[in-house]
Amino acid sequence: MSVAGSAEGRPAAGRRLSPRSLLRHESVLLVLVVITLAMLAHQSDRFFTTDNLLNQGRLMAEVGFASLTMTFVIITGGIDLSVGSILGLGAIMLGVFWKNVGLPLPVAMVLAVAVGGVCGLVNGLIITRFRVPPLIATLATLSLYRGLAEGISESRSVRGYPEWFFRLGQGDVFGVPTQVWILVLAAIFGALVLSRTTFGRATYALGANETAARFSGVAVDRTKLLIYTASGLAASLASVIFVSRVSTTRSDMGTGLELDAITAVVLGGTSIFGGRGTIAGTVLGLVLIQALRNGLALSGVKGDGTIMVIGAVLILAILVSNMLGRDGDG
Amino acid sequence: MEAIAAPPLGARRLRRLAAAYGQELVVLGALVVLMVGVGLYNPRFLSDTSLTSVFSGNAYIAVAAIGMSMVIITGNIDVSVGALIGVLGTIAGTLAVNGAPTWVSWGTPLLVGMAVNAVIGLLVAYARIPAIVVTLGMLSILRGGLISATGGKWISGLPSAFRLAQERFFGVPSGVFIAAILTVIAALWMRYSSTGRAIYAVGGNAEAARAAGVRTQGMLVLVFALHGFFAGIAAVLFATQLQVIQSTVPPNLEMSIITASVIGGVSILGGTGTVIGSTLAALLFSAIASALIFVNISAYWLRAVLGLLILGTVLADMARRRRKGRIQ
B177-200 burial by CB neighbour count: b if 16+ within 10 A, else e? Predict the structure, then answer.
C-alpha cells in the first residue's frame, strides 16, 4: 500500500526468507509478551491472579475470533473492514429472529451466524467477481451492514434472554470461560488449516503472487470466497457470544472491532502485503494487546491511555521488525 | 468473468459519458437528480435555509477530503484523520477559551496537523511501514490522547470572534466558501503545477516517477503534511459549528472522508482522480442525508442508503475501468 514498487517487492523477499524471518518476528514478539507480562505482574499484585487472567480471556474472545479469520484475509493480501459491522448486524438479527419473528433461541442463534456468513460471502463476491479492491469493497459494506443494523433495529435494544443463553458469554466450563474454550479450539483449527492443508498453502500462494498462483492451478477465487465467508461467520459467531456476555443487543456493537483485529494480526507478524503470517503470531499479538490493556488499567492508567500505548506498540513493533528484516536481507 | 458484469442498457450510455467526462459528472448528475427529485416531491427542500444547512454542515468533510484525495492518489490511505480532526478542534478551542488571539487559535491546528501527518509521511516513506499500519497506530494514539487530555469534557464559552463556521462571506456560509475556494485552488495546483503532477506520478507508477526525477519519498512526506494542513482547516470549521466543542467526532468520520474521495472518483489503486469529485461527493452525502428527512424516510436508514450508494459507485467504477482497459 505504500509505494507501489515496495509493495510488489516485499512478498517475494518475505517468502524467500520465510521460515527464519517468521521465527524471528514471532520470537521478538514472544520476548516482548514475556517482558510485558513480567513487568505488569511486578506492577500490580492483581494482574497474575487466575481470576483476572481468565476474565481477560473472556474479554479477548470477540476480537479473537475476528483476528483468526483476519489473519487468513491479510495473508491473501486483502483486508476486511466490515467485521465490526457484521458483528453489529449479527447481534441485531439474533434479537429480531428471537423476539420479533418468535423463533426458538437456538434457531435464532444459528440464523444470526448464517447472516454473518452471507455478509462475508457478499464481500467475497464483490471482491472476486467485480475485482473491487478489498479495502474499498469492505469499506462500502462496513457502511451498508452497519446501516442495515441501524435501520432494522431503529436503535432499539433487545433484552430478556433466557438464563441458559448466558452460559456462552458469562459461564464457565471446567473453570475456564466458555468462549475461551471455543477460541482456543478455533485457533488450533485455524493454525492447522493454515499450516497443514492445501487450502492453507493456497492462501499463502495467492498472497505472495496471485497471478503465479492462478497459473499454478490454485483456485484463487474459490479460496478468497471461502476466506471472506469465514470472516463473516467468525464475526457473527463473536456477535452471539458478545450478546450473551453483555445480555443485550445494540446496533452499535462491535464498532471499531476491525481495527482491533487488524492491529492484533499485524502486530503478530502477518505482512499487510500478504504472503506471510501465522496464527501463532496473531494469538501472541492478541495476548500482548489484552495484557497491555489490562495491566496498564490495573496500574492506574486510564482506559484511553492504554489505547495510546497500543497504537505506539503497533508502530514500534513493525518498525523494529522491518529493521531486523532488512538486516536479514543483507 | 465478463458475462457477469454485462450492464443494463441505460447504464451503458451513462458509462460512455462517464468514461469521457469522468466520475465528477456522475456525482454532479446524481446531485442534480436528487435535488430536483426531492424538490418536486417537497418544495421546501429547495428553500434557502435548508439548502444552506445542507451545504455548510458537511463543508469540513469536503475540506478534509481534499487532503485525503491527495493521499489516496499517491496510493496510500489515512484512517486516523477523524481522530486528528477531533484533536485539532480541541486544540483550537482550548486556545480560544484561554484568550489566545483568534488567528493563533485558527492557525495552530494547521501547523500541528502538518507536523503530525509529516511524521506519518516520514514513517511511510522512509521507514517503509504501510500507511494503513502507521495510521491505524496513529488513530489509537490520537483517540486515546484526546480522551485522556479532555476527560471527555466539552469546551464551552468560546469567544464569538472564534466561530469561523458561523460567519458568512459575501452572503455565503463561510464553510461553503472556504471549501469551494480550496477545492478550486487544489484542483488547479494538482493539474497544472509540476509538484501537483508529481503526486499523480508517484501514485501511478512510483518507479517510473523516480526514474523521471521525482523525489518520491519527499513527495510522500509533502502530501501527508498537506493532508494535515487541510485536516487543520477542517478541524477549525468543525469546531466552530456549534457553541461548544465536543471531545468526540462523529463515529467513522475517517470513513466518511475516505468515501467522499472514492465516490468522487479517486481510485484507491492510486494515480487518478480529482478533488473536485471529492467535494461534489461530500455535497451529495449531505444532500442525501437531508433529503431523507424531506421524503419521510427514517434517519435510521441513512447509513444503509449511503452504503448502497458507495457500493453502486464502486461497482460502476470498476465496470467502467474494465471497459476502458478492453478498448485500449
Answer: bbbeebbeebbebbeeeeebebbb
Residues of B in contact with A272 (CB under 8 A): 130, 132-133
Name the residue among B141, B147, B319 with its Cβ closest to that of A312: B141
Q: Which residue has the cell 483476519?
A: A70
Fold of B3-323: ABC transporter involved in vitamin B12 uptake, BtuC (1.10.3470)
pLDDT at B16: 62
To which residue does cell 464569538 refer? B160
Contact B303 A302 (CB under 8 A): no
Q: Which domain holds residue A39?
A: 4-329
ipTM for the predicted complex comes to 0.76
Residues 76 through 135 of chain B touching chain A, CB cutoff 8 Å: 76-77, 79, 123-125, 127-134
Is residue A256 within 8 A of residue A85, CB to CB? The reply is no
Query: Which pLDDT does position A17 carry in this prediction?
Result: 46
Q: Please name the residue that has the C-alpha cell 495552530.
A: B108
The two counts, helices (H) then strands (E), for chain A are 13, 2
Q: What is the pLDDT of residues B182-237, one digit of tens each?
A: 999 999 998 888 888 888 888 888 888 888 888 889 999 999 999 999 999 999 99
**Span A60-101, pLDDT tens digits:** 999 999 999 999 999 999 999 899 999 999 999 999 998 888
> Is the confidence at residue A307, as pLDDT, over 50?
yes
Q: For residue A318, which residues of chain B lie inside 8 Å, CB to CB?
A: 129, 133
Euclidean distance between CA atoms A116 and B65, whole angstroms: 31
Phi, then psi, of B245 in degrees rounded to 5: -115, 120
As given in the structure block, the three cell numbers for residue B246 are 465536543
CA distance A212 to A204: 12
- Phi-psi region for residue A152, left (φ > 0), alpha (ψ -120 to 50) or beta? alpha
Q: How far apart are CA B163 and CA B160, in angstroms?
A: 6
Q: Answer positive or negative: Cα dihedral of A184, A187, A188, A189.
A: positive
- Domains of chain B by residue range: 3-323
B325 vs A253 pLDDT, higher one: A253
Using an 8 Å Cβ cutoff, are B78 and B120 in contact?
yes
Sign of CA dihedral B5, B275, B71, B241: negative
Query: What does the pLDDT look like over A269-304, one tens digit per residue?
Result: 888 888 889 999 999 999 988 888 887 777 777 767
- CA–CA gap between residue A306 and residue A7 (Å, rounded): 31
Domain count, chain A: 1
Per DSSP, A155 falls in state T
Does residue B202 come out as left (phi exceeding 0), alpha (psi in the -120 to 50 range) or beta? alpha
Q: Is B141 on the interface with A (CB under 8 A)?
A: yes
Residue of chain B with shortest Cα separation from A137: B311
Record: contact A136-B140, CB cut-off 8 A: no
Grid coordinates given for B25: 459528472
Which CATH number fits the domain that encloses residue A29? 1.10.3470
pTM of the model: 0.81
> Would residue B273 be called left, alpha or beta, if left means φ above 0 and alpha means ψ between -120 and 50 degrees?
left
Nearest CB among A255, A306, A318 relative to B133 is that of A318
